[in-house]
Amino acid sequence: MKKVIYREFDKKAITALPRVLFPGKIITILSEGETEKAVNYLLSQPILGFDTETRPSFTKGQVHKVSLLQVSTHSTCFLFRLNYTGITPALIRLLEDRLVRKVALSWHDDILSLQRRKHFNPGTFTDLQTLMPTIGVEDKSLQKLYANFFGEKISKRQQLSNWDADILSDRQKEYAATDAWACIKLFEEFKRLKETNDYELQEYISEEG
Q1: Among positive and negative, which fits the CA dihedral 78, 82, 84, 89?
Q2: Is 1 exposed, middle or buried (0-12, 13-18, 19+ CB in 10 A)?
Q3: Residue 122: CB partners within 8 Å, gap ≥ 6?
């Protein structure tokens, strides 16, 4: 039986889904030396998931600098606290890399935010928003895509929390890691479905409809 995916997932249906959390190890990076070691490890991996977090602003016209860069493998996620380290030479090496598969969602906006901290020439990134229409999926958000592909919910409760806090809470760390790791999961499932044609695209029909 082919896997059923939807052209567009019903956002209201996400609430009832079981929650998913990154199951691996989370490492917070606070210094340039730690950054160097982490980047060396990451660039030895076959695939990486990327995301960023920025402290929200509730004042019109006020924009904060990007606070966090999270980069995940299948089993380990590094949280680079940019408000402590800035964009170091090692991070530039990672962001400019053209060899390792790097996957993100709506990455153009994240690049602009990162470049406001320090200029770099972006390397090769795969953006899920560009891939999904090639199999007929119109969802744009990570939450809707993950629900569509895996039937699980990524909680967004920590999205508007203070990412410049002196110490990130465990819930913030789990949220950040899950978002980066989910990009890997989605890319690999997309690739499998695309190569095998083992899916059936349907219109979502809600219980009300």
Answers
A1: positive
A2: exposed
A3: 95, 96, 111
- How many beta carbons lie within 10 A of that of residue 3, not counting itself? 12
- Residue 188: enclosing H or E segment and its boundaries? helix 170-196
Which of 86-95, 121-130, 170-179, 196-205 comes out lowest in average pLDDT?
Answer: 196-205
Give me the pLDDT at residue 58, please.
Answer: 63
What is the pLDDT confidence band of residue 56, given thresholds at 50, 70 and 90? confident
In whole angstroms, give the CA distance from residue 39 to residue 184: 18
Please tell me whether the overall predicted TM-score, pTM, comes out greater than 0.90 for this model. yes
> What are the C-alpha distances in Å from 160 to residues 103, 137, 168?
23, 27, 13
Q: What is the DSSP letter of 163?
A: T
**202 within 8 A of 3, measured Cβ to Cβ:** no
Q: How many CB atoms lie within 10 A of CB 117?
A: 15
Q: What is the pLDDT of residue 204?
A: 80
Say what the pLDDT of residue 60 is. 74
